[in-house]
Amino acid sequence: MAASHPPDLILLDIGLPDKSGHEILKDLREWYNNPVIILSVQDNESDIIAALDHGATDYLTKPFRTGELLARIRAAIRRSQSEVNESAISCGDIEIDLTARLVRRNGETVKLTTTEYNLLALFAKNESRVLTHQYILKQVWGVGRQTETQYLRVFVGTLRKKIEENPNIPQHIITVSGVGYRFQ
What we know:
The chain is an alpha+beta fold. It is built from six helices and ten strands; from the N terminus they run βαβαβαββββαβααββ. The strands form three sheets. A four-stranded antiparallel sheet has the order 4-5-6-7, with helices on one face.
């Protein structure tokens, strides 16, 4: 049904009787780009990380408050709609023109490789959200490279040298120890 009439957002439980919610999420992410919020009684870190790595937009453990769920739905839909409508992203001294694939820092063009640009665009489109190593690797390098975090460390280091005022004290690409990175 979702394939023939794609909804604006999907609420998905991990614990389903016929098939794991993780498997359904993986299948959905092969063709569905709108937000998916996980609702689950499973509150252990490994389940949450797995769901986020498989492409969940958000994760909410049961029991939850209805108002909080509604707020998370509104936020996910707002982010989704702004991603569709945004052709340029401005983050402090950095401007990213998604249509022209150009990056400027303090008004000057920054020369990036295709991979560096794809990495920066992914960060900017997910501003303030923590992206796990595995999620970033899957989005930028594709399936099968999700365990090769050395690629990610090298490219983040190179990208920091090009866009940060002081790469040793980054203001934009922030490391979230043991998890991934956050762009601000």
